[in-house]
Amino acid sequence: MNRHRTLAIAVLVGTLAVPVSVAAPASASGGGNATIKRGTCSGSAHWKLKGKPDNGRLEIEGEIDSNHNGQTWSWTMRHNGSVSARGTATTKGPSGSFSVTRRMVDLAGKDTIVFRAKNAGSGEVCRGVVSL
Question: What is the pTM assigned to this prediction?
Answer without folding.
Answer: 0.74
